[in-house]
Amino acid sequence: MVTATAGSLPVIDAAASTPSLEIDPALTARWLEAFLRDELLVRRGAHNAVVGLSGGVDSAVTAFLCARALGPEHLWAIRMPYRTSSPASLSDAQSVVEALGCNVATIEISDAVDGYLRHEPGSDARRRGNVMARTRMLVLFDQSVKLGALPIGTGNKTERLLGYFTWHADDSPPLNPLGDLFKTQVWALARYLGVPAPIVDKAPSADLEADQTDEADLGISYAKADVILASMLIGYDDEQIASRGFALDDVRLVRRRVDGTHWKRHLPTTAMLSNTAINEFYLRPVDY
Amino acid sequence: MKLAILQFKPRKGEIDANLAVLGEAFAQLAGEEKDYDLIVLPEAALTGYFLEGAVYELAQDAEALAARLAALWRERSAKNRPVDIAIGFYENAAGTYYNAAMYLRVTPDAHEIVHLHRKMFLATYGVFDEERFLSRGRRIQAFDTRFGRMALLICEDAWHAIMPTIAAIKGARALIVPSASPGRGLAGDGELESVRYWREILHAYAVEHGVYIFYAGLAGFEGGKGMTGSSRVVDPRGQTLAEGPELDACVIRAEIDFREVDLARASLPLLGDLNAVLPDLLLDEELLPTLGRDVLGAKVQW
What we know:
The structure holds two protein chains of two kinds.
Chain A: H1 25-43, E1 48-52, H2 57-70, E2 75-79, H3 87-100, E3 103-106, H4 110-117, H5 125-147, E4 149-151, H6 157-162, H7 183-193, H8 197-201, H9 214-218, H10 222-233, H11 238-242, H12 248-259
Helix pairs in contact in A: 1-2, 1-7, 2-7, 10-12
Chain B: E1 2-7, H1 15-30, E2 38-40, H2 55-58, H3 62-77, E3 83-93, E4 96-107, E5 110-118, H4 130-133, E6 142-145, E7 148-152, H5 162-169, E8 174-179, H6 193-209, E9 212-217, E10 219-222, E11 225-228, E12 232-234, E13 240-243, E14 250-255, H7 259-267, H8 270-282, H9 288-301
Parallel strand pairs in B: 1-2, 2-3, 7-8, 8-9
Antiparallel strand pairs in B: 1-14, 3-4, 4-5, 6-7, 9-12, 10-11, 12-13
Helix pairs in contact in B: 1-3
């Protein structure tokens, strides 16, 4: 019974509205497996998938999902090391192959990459990294034709929003199961799927340069970036996000990266000249 | 009344192929010993939901589609039995395009569109872009069937509580809800948040108005967007009698006894209460400026 004594009532504080990054990993896995089966088997009549297996968590989760959706015998994991790639990447990728029992091929890209870069001695790390990423996509698409398979993308929502990928390379496969999951959600899914722990626990890296890590490149941890991004996407301004426990500089860094990379999440800009411009006036869904 | 909800998984844009699959389903249903009385299909059942500009290539004349469905039923059921069919489709009404649903009565030698509903709340936000391509329906009506009075609400129509409310006030004892709902929200406990939302609002409508709800959800992925079937029958006390899976095609079979509506309304007479209070609500002078402009004003002009 509530009495009228001043100051004696218990006070219950309401939480601030915050976007939830929690996922039900079993539900997520079930949904993404159904997505892969429907898009590959039903819509496109393709029974096989190829995944570029880097040794990182995104491609490992993608491979696990493909193996569950299609059967490991229908998955080709392609390892594409460059001569400076970390040996740990190759062995981590191997642990995924062993866990799944899928097909595997290792295709060195050093000759192809160096064959071009030999003529570009002044190229910096960014250019070299882009050439590696685009060479890997060239290999992946060619292998997909050879194997009668579709390449499956591995990009997550965080890297897509931050523009932390090579345009028309990592983002080019026709299907992408992880593109609407933040990095921290990919980790949660990885744990549920049983991705080998060293892959889930290690610092994420594009492995385009020695000792590179994503979080050093980005200047912020994924744990922070994901909540800031999720808050931005539902419309909170910088001050609202900062008031939920983030440094204003971190919030601004994330917003700068997102606002500077909208173009990377679109097809090329085409000059519109008619009333039938493709994707402006002439609109047809991708599965039509 | 024996009800079938056909949770349908069409191939995008392939109307003939989808009608062939529907014919197989008709044959399956007609093979049962006891005849079905009403077959309910989802929104955009024969084309898929996300069509963009292709809607102008695929929209159907309502009467022409009714004739095809009636012929298909007669051919594949191989019985001289009547059936009622409710189905969502994109309608081409002489060059005006609607997201529509029809309630069709098929007899051995004739068919009749008992009611045609055109979606009023065209989803146009986020992933949805209906109003870019389609015109809005103008009215929600209840209509008489041989089993009792019903109403059709298409997808977002049923996200506005006033729609089932008006349908119930107009006498509907069952709400037929053809829907195409792309699943989203993964935080739930084994259930997508969008599916949970549907479950909760349909439960609330059934309880508040004492109506049956026949919800038919489109199934399958469309360009990465998974349409969450989850078709369901909710009884007038809010109990879910059956629920379909998220992504696969299925038939939900239910025996419907409309006496349940009377019993539910007797024990919880909220609809009767609403009818008594409604005049005061509608004549609220704070509402009148809005109604006067959009409704009463229009009536005067007519």
